[in-house]
Amino acid sequence: MLVFTDYDRFATSCPGAAQVVLDIIARQAGQAAVLRRRLICLVQSNDPQIRFESVGAMPVMWNSDEWADSNRG
Question: What mean pLDDT value characterizes the chain?
Answer without folding.
Answer: 86
